[in-house]
Design goal:
Elements: H1 3-13, H2 22-30, H3 33-43, H4 46-50, H5 65-93
Length: 95
């Protein structure tokens, strides 16, 4: 096993997930810390990744379709949470 990923998993288990960097969070999703570091560096973070075509991620060593689908799923989950929060705020403003 990868010692970096083991350490990251321990931090999550110890309720320290909020302290992880974007690269560390992506490493947990991809099970690959080196690819995660490279992707975050190249795109400047999650925000830079968000609107990119998923095909751009195929250029990274170790990333295949399955891992790219994981990334897409994470972004979709985040989008749904944001949409729900925005809808709730709009509802509250109309009260």
């Amino acid at each position: 096993m990868n010692p970096v990923l083991d350490w990251l998993q321990t931090r999550v288990t110890n309720s320290e997930i909020t302290k992880l960097t974007e690269a560390e969070l992506l490493a947990l999703v991809l099970s690959d810390d080196k690819a995660a570091d490279e992707i975050i560096r190249d795109f400047g973070g999650f925000r830079g990744m968000a609107n990119q075509p998923l095909e751009k991620l195929l250029r990274y060593k170790g990333l295949g379709e399955a891992k790219i689908i994981r990334i897409a799923a994470c972004f979709e989950m985040a989008k749904r949470v944001v949409d729900q929060v925005v809808s709730q705020l709009k509802f509250q403003q109309h009260l």
